[in-house]
Design goal:
Elements (H helix, E strand, L loop, with lengths): L8 E3 L10 H17 L2 E5 L5 H15 L3 H5 L11 E3 L16 E5 L25 H26 L6 H6 L5 E7 L13 E4 L5 E5 L6 E4 L5 E3 L7 E5 L1 H6 L9 E3 L9 E8 L26 H11 L5
Parallel strand pairs: 1-2
Antiparallel strand pairs: 2-10, 3-4, 4-5, 5-12, 6-11, 7-10, 7-12, 8-9, 8-11
Helix pairs in contact: 1-4, 2-4
């Protein structure tokens, strides 16, 4: 049976179309912007992220998350506020949701040379010694996802009528995060209100979700119902986060989404969202081009201050 996607599907090759095929590029920009204005989600194919690399990353993830709890805990450092290394099961909860999510995860951030002006500001990545290939595979995946995110942010800027590099430049040298998530089998004593990931919005500019190992992702529609999003080979799911909604004064939507529990409680799920962040000093004041009738709907704030506020709300910062 042919499985079809439930959200718009775009082909990134259209954005790179040459001058003779400029209509394809313009159609891509319009489709991307319309999807983010309407539902805040789309899928992208031919995205430049190697499918073999994605599978290698999932194999490395499985090797790490099946280690004994005592071994995994060696890579959890509270001072890092969950921004690098391991975060244990049940530590994170959705904003305003009292029950922790049914997941554990690992964060990979940007690696900068020692002489870079931001090197001292970003924590160093950790690497699990028990899985030697982990760091190499995840760093390669990080680089490929970043290239894709940069292209999509350029298309966003053009859709808004702004210079092409406006949004992608905000991301350059930022502390963008690759999150490697393990959703273990559902325990018999799990809280009745607990979900693999309770309803939430992402904090950042754009999120790129590598094809997860199972379905479960759902987005909240305007009529209050939930739409299931398929995990299909060759597709990356993209959604706009709160920071993009903020800087566009609400024009591009940050849509509520969740990961529901499976019918078969014994099924594991792995996923790898890539959270494209701006640098901490970036001003998230809404763009003047997105302010209609002088109504600025979101306050002025830097990306760094915004992130710290949200980390406290989801339980990763004190």
């Amino acid at each position: 049976m042919l499985l079809t996607q439930t959200i718009p599907v775009l082909d990134l090759r259209d954005f790179y179309a040459d001058a003779q095929k400029n209509d394809r590029r313009q159609a891509f920009i319009h489709q991307l912007g319309s999807a983010l204005e309407d539902i805040g989600f789309f899928a992208v194919t031919h995205h430049g992220v190697d499918s073999t690399l994605i599978q290698s990353a999932y194999e490395a993830a499985q090797a790490f998350f099946t280690l004994p709890e005592s071994a995994k805990r060696c890579y959890e450092e509270p001072a890092l506020q969950g921004q690098r290394g391991f975060t244990a099961f049940g530590r994170e909860h959705a904003k305003d949701h009292p029950v922790p999510d049914l997941k554990e995860f690992w964060h990979v951030g940007r690696s900068l040379p020692p002489d870079h002006p931001l090197a001292a500001r970003y924590p160093a990545n950790l690497s699990p010694l028990e899985v030697p290939q982990f760091a190499t595979v995840m760093n390669q995946l990080y680089a490929q996802l970043e290239a894709c995110a940069m292209a999509l942010l350029k298309a966003c800027a053009l859709y808004l009528g702004e210079p092409e590099s406006l949004l992608s430049d905000m991301m350059r040298d930022s502390d963008t995060i690759l999150r490697v998530i393990h959703y273990p089998p559902i325990a018999p004593d799990a809280h009745p209100a607990s979900l693999r990931a309770a309803a939430h919005e992402d904090i950042n500019l754009l999120t790129l979700l590598c094809e997860a190992t199972d379905d479960g992702l759902e987005l909240l529609q305007r009529d209050g119902t939930w739409r299931s999003i398929r995990a299909l080979p060759g597709q990356i799911i993209v959604d706009s986060g709160d920071m993009l909604q903020q800087i566009t004064n609400g024009r591009l939507k940050s849509t509520t989404h969740r990961v529901v529990n499976p019918v078969d409680d014994r099924r594991r799920r792995f996923s790898m969202p890539f959270f494209a962040h701006p640098r901490p000093d970036v001003d998230l004041t809404p763009l003047s081009s997105c302010i209609a009738n002088g109504a600025q709907l979101f306050p002025s704030i830097t990306a760094g201050a915004y992130l710290q506020q949200r980390l406290r709300e989801i339980g990763l910062a004190g």
